[in-house]
Amino acid sequence: MKIKFLSPRILRLVFLAALPHAGGTAITSPAHIYETLDQVYAWQAERLEPHRNQSIIGWKHATFYTGVMELYRATGRSEYIDLLREIAEDHNWRMLTVNQLQWRHADNHLIGETYINLFLEDADASPIRLMHVNQIFSNMIAQPIPGRQIYNWCDALFMSPPVWAQLAALREDDVYLRELDDLWWDATDFLYDPEHRLYFRDADYFNALEPNGMPVFWGRGNGWVMGGLVRVLQYMPGHHGGRQAYVDLFVEMAEKIADIQMDNGAWATSLLYPERFDFEPEMSATGFFVYSLAWGINNGLLSKDRFGPVVETGWATMNDFLEPDGSIRKIQAVGKDPVPWDGGVEQREYGYGAFILAGIEMASYYKEKANLSTWHGFDVITHMNGTQWVDSGSYLGMVEVSRHPYVYSETLGAWLYAPEDEGLYTEAGAWVRFLR
User: Fold this and answer.
1) Based on the number of CB atoms within 10 Å of its own CB, is 211 exposed (0-12), middle (13-18) or buried (19 or more)?
2) For residues 110 and 413, what is the distance between their CA atoms, to the nearest angstrom?
3) Which member of 65, 200, 269, 373 has the lowest number of beta carbons within 10 Å of its beta carbon?
4) Whole-structure pTM over 0.85, yes or no?
């Protein structure tokens, strides 16, 4: 049997008509989750500004790229990384510097995370690609500013700290970790409310109260913080003595976030006064919270018994606001405080990035929950390094299934798209099941 490899575009068209409506078993199937994420990716990618437009390397878009990079790593599909490489090359691997005062602005640092990840994915990459990232962060070390001044709004903790952790791991130099610690914990001392276990958006909200007498804590703002904690912990070297403090903060906030989830499965723009806008779901905050909590479960920091129902209901609600074309409703527009949804679905790149990040973690969550022991009828063998393989004999040889439904055949030397319920697409134009 000869295998036909379909282009990503054709694959999307093949599956779009057959993709079940959000809900039911579809949203718990890793195969269907990846199909959904590809729809979300395609919708947003097709609406990016011209690649030489400076705004395309700003924080809104860079949040989307963070999700796209993780989607590439989960699936191995070149379409995703090709987009990111094109954008990096169009901008000469430089971060956004509007003027001489903007080089240390956290919003402009997030694209650096994508640049470093692209560098790591290319064995032949020249270190010159990271010259501008290195220059910016070296200047910050040489000209230090307290965290409460440079990261004086909570969104910044998603935008810049992960790059410090990346550079520490890449350079094997703890000076980056020391700088990260100084900046993060000074900013936290400034913005974090230990009583409510949430971050104020900025100093303007220290004394602001909702009509119910509770402080104003912005949903997406705390989503940025939780997502930033995940990204820092993901990159931070395990030997770092200060790592446990980040874990403790993550777990402390996770408990609070779980407690204030609304009955509809989502989170509100005003976390402690959801009735302000009649318990309206807000999808960027919900996306970041589902992403962060699911990551915590998948990495052993949070109990599945405690947090599993939280992420499952959150993910189900996220799918309720996903349109068949891949667009997402109920993403709050760019802002800094609780406001209702304005009806828009475009220019919300950060929300699409959050959705993709959440979906990847939920695919891993459901895969782990299923405790998969077979793949298309073949026994799965888990190696000591955690990768999963099957021996399909003369059919496809040894196949790595760690990233199911995208799998790698050693015999063919190629990636295949093989959803559990349909098998591989052959030149005969039909879906076939795997047979022993």
Assistant:
1) exposed
2) 34
3) 373
4) no
